[in-house]
Design brief:
The protein has helices at 10-15, 18-26, 33-53, 70-79, 84-117, 122-130. The protein has 131 residues and is an all-alpha fold.
Length: 131
């Protein structure tokens, strides 16, 4: 496991505390069964915290204030945990998705203009229903 790339996710930060992180940092320096027991206690507390989140909307609210789409938030959060090559691949995928969205928008604008030009837009369809 690549320990240098290990970071706390938003979810992890909801399960642990600064004190718990400090205790985890000390565990490798404690000998014997005490270190194992301490590690298990910390992990058990994190598990209890995860179970407590189930009854709240905290997990789904993590990105509620962000102006970006859920997909953009997802890619941004995942990107932090990737190596350089994987990040480049992710960036390329995101660029392709943006181009596809732009292409779809352009197609939709063309169709809307075409429909308006021949009087087949939403407003005129409504008028025909009342005819």
């Amino acid at each position: 496991m690549d320990h240098e790339s290990m970071k706390l996710t938003k979810f992890d930060s909801m399960l642990t505390s600064r004190t718990m992180q400090l205790v985890k940092a000390v565990i490798p320096y404690i000998d014997g069964d005490t270190s194992t027991m301490l590690g298990m206690i910390i992990k058990f507390q994190e598990l209890r915290n995860a179970a407590a989140l189930r009854s709240t909307n905290a997990v789904s609210a993590m990105n509620a204030d962000n102006s970006q789409s859920k997909m953009e938030n997802l890619f941004h959060d995942i990107r932090e945990f990737l190596n350089e090559e994987e990040q480049e691949t992710m960036d390329m995928m995101m660029s392709m998705m943006e181009m596809m969205n732009m292409d779809e928008d352009a197609r939709q604008n063309f169709m809307d203009g075409y429909m308006d030009m021949f009087g087949m837009g939403d407003d005129s369809a409504h008028d025909y229903q009342n005819f």
